[in-house]
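User: tokens in, sequence out, please.
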């Protein structure tokens, strides 16, 4: 039986795979994209019902296609994003094959790769792993099943009606945790939210969205997180037209805030005494963006409206001034926990010397030490913007240049 061959195989048909396909096509590199399910599958099945993009439509897109039916300052729904990426695949005439899973990639003795798929073997000179930044939901092993609490990861959260009646504990105050907790509160649930270290930039300031500010201030291009910032998540929201995430404002509407959850025994969750510190650091981050923005406006002599009210702080509620350090779930009426605690990668299908002892990719800007093997779409691949819609497009351009150079050598 003849084996199919291709110059470059892209694994994954999300935004990263499509961006890669566009840039390879532009450079005339023959390639194939394999997607185990459907185009933009993560936006279809790993997001909650009401999710909209965290960035405005002028920003959260590829340069080659605008949203014709979403206000540039509005926020595209997850379903609209799926349509967008489907249309994009057509526009660039991407050679994408859906419903084909890559099972393993191994080195060939004479160079290149042997790729086992659900539909046979393919040989490729180059392989780009574009299988996403968020592959395996992490639920910390804190609350045992025997506790009788309904537990899901944010990856599997869809809407409030999906959870059993009763109060909900949401763990994690990144964009997912904050948005889910707010949605549950607005649906009439009693909500407890465990808030860890976070950044919470203003949604907009002096007439410009934070995506604009992060761009002009150079933050999207930051190449490292900065000292002590290894695990800091960013909390933003495009929900209901977009708003700044303000945990104190959540508390003023009745949400119970906690510090980081630490352990669980006999029905009681122990909580770190770090709520106030985490909120204060989140505020400091918020204010630092305002300060930098003001300085930028002054330095450039821009005529943008003043916004002194942006510096007003929501007064503390009792759960902040007298923080909860242990939470008896039954007494609080908590029947479910939503773990918005992030994801790990799973590259176990890569049978190549490109992973560290924890299975994490080893690379320099997506280029590995295995000739012809590349990663795309990972957090901090080249900079802060790397896992996001517009950032991945630029990283794909860089990798396509590398691959084209290799193909010509
Ligand atoms: C809740 C949430 C909200 C987000 N909101 C935004 C936002 O508003 N704006 C923004 O810019 N970013 C956002 N992101 C970040 C990022 O844009 C998304 O995670 C995006 O889906 C990443 O695109 P990707 O193509 O890298 O990965 P994915 O979209 O995960 O695509 C990877 C694809 O690879 C396929 N695949 C995996 N393994 C295999 C295999 N072995 N063989 C074949 N195919 C395979 C999968 O089926 C999938 O379709 C959000 C992330 C999350 C989790």
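Assistant: Sequence out:
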């Amino acid at each position: 039986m003849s084996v199919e061959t291709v110059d470059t195989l892209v694994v994954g048909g999300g935004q990263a795979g499509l961006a890669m396909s566009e840039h390879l096509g532009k450079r005339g590199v023959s390639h194939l994209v394999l997607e185990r399910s459907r185009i933009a599958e993560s936006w279809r099945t790993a997001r909650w019902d009401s999710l909209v993009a965290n960035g405005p439509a002028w920003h959260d897109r590829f340069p080659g296609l605008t949203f014709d039916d979403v206000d540039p300052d509005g926020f595209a729904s997850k379903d609209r994003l799926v349509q967008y990426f489907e249309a994009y695949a057509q526009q660039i005439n991407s050679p994408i094959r859906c419903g084909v899973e890559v099972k393993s990639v191994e080195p060939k003795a004479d160079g290149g790769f042997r790729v086992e798929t659900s539909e046979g073997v393919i040989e490729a000179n180059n392989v780009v792993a574009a299988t996403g930044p968020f592959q395996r939901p992490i639920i910390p092993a804190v609350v045992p099943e025997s506790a009788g609490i309904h537990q899901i990861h944010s990856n599997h959260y869809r809407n409030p009606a999906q959870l059993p009646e009763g109060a909900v504990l949401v763990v994690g105050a990144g964009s997912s945790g904050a948005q889910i907790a707010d949605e549950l509160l607005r649906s009439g649930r009693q909500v407890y939210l465990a808030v860890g270290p976070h950044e919470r930039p203003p949604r907009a300031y002096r007439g410009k969205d934070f995506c604009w500010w992060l761009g002009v201030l150079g933050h999207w291009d930051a190449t490292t997180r900065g000292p002590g910032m290894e695990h800091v998540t960013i909390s933003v929201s495009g929900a209901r037209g977009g708003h700044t995430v303000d945990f104190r404002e959540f508390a003023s509407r009745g949400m119970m805030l906690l510090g980081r959850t630490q352990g669980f025994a006999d029905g009681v969750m122990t909580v770190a005494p770090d709520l106030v510190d985490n909120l204060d650091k989140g505020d400091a981050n918020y204010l630092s963006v305002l300060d930098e923005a003001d300085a930028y406006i002054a330095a450039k002599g821009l005529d943008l409206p003043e916004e002194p009210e942006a510096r007003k702080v929501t007064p503390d509620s009792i759960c902040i001034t007298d923080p909860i350090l242990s939470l008896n779930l039954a007494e609080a009426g908590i029947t479910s926990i939503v773990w918005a605690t992030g994801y790990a990668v799973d590259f176990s299908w890569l049978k190549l010397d490109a992973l560290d002892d924890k299975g994490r990719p080893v690379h320099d800007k997506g280029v590995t030490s295995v000739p012809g093997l590349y990663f795309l779409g990972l957090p901090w691949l080249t900079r802060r913007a790397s896992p996001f819609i517009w950032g991945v497009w630029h990283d794909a351009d860089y990798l396509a240049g590398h691959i084209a150079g290799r193909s010509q050598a």
